[in-house]
Design brief:
- The chain has about 300 residues and is mainly alpha-helical.
- It has 2 domains: about 130 residues, no CATH class; about 160 residues, no CATH class.
- The chain contains 11 helices and no strands.
- The termini are far apart.
- About 0% of the residues have low confidence.
Length: about 300
Amino acid sequence: MTAVLSALSASPAFFIASCLVLGLIVGSFLNVVIYRLPIMLDREWREQCEELAREGAASGPHTTPGLETTQTLRERFNLIVPHSACPSCKAPITALQNIPILSYCMLGGRCAACGARIGVRYPLVEALTGVLSALVAWRLGFGWPALAGLVLTWFLIALTFIDIDRQLLPDNLTLPLLWLGLVLSLWGPQPGDAAVPVDLRSSLIGAVAGYLSLWSIYHLFRFATGKEGMGYGDFKLFAALGAWLGWQMLLPIVLVAAAVGAVAGIAILSIKGKDRGTPIAFGPFLAAAGWLMLMFGHDLVAKYLGLFSPHS
């Protein structure tokens, strides 16, 4: 292990390549998280509804139709069990068929058993995770800040695609991300002004300000229009970004997210021919802006403040 760490620290190229490969492997697991976690949550909510229905039936003569416990809900379903299988024919996916990107290319994007087409997003998530992991390694260099940056990147990728698919930012991801950012801040800034972790004061203020700022905007918008402009998951994600990157990054994050979100939203609605009332997930734009601030935020803020320096 010591020899491996020495090699990683001695060769930036080797470190970046290692993070690229690690990112590809993690991306394969993120595909599982993106697909299964919302289903797991849906089953949990249904089981809770069934339990409440049974309690209500036991206390009165009326029952709630359609909430009987089913075999589907009783089956184990988590991030490990059951093993990966083809959605069409249910044939199990072997280890050789699950190599990131390579297996997809070798199979021609089709199931080896039935020939059903495999969604192109699976290798895209793997490739995206690998590339972004390599960029984090390149930007932050070998050390604990890079490891923290990788973890933050992986969380943001999973949250982005879940929000795109379900318009949901699960507490199972946002809250651990928030607490992890706060815990890391106990070790304070690393030498060289690395982006993460930030000092405890900046992290705490960032978490509180991140949540309350979007929470306030949400309630003001609802009071003015009678509509809900965003979900509580957005508040928690923004709080988590504040905990990781500090309160100083909150304004750049929300400005970038709002600007890109507005342009992308208009484009999406125009292409799909939908009206302005159609909801669009805001989480992906927050996540993208947060990742950009992880990579370049300190330099951008320093250059901006330098414009007002008397020596500039």
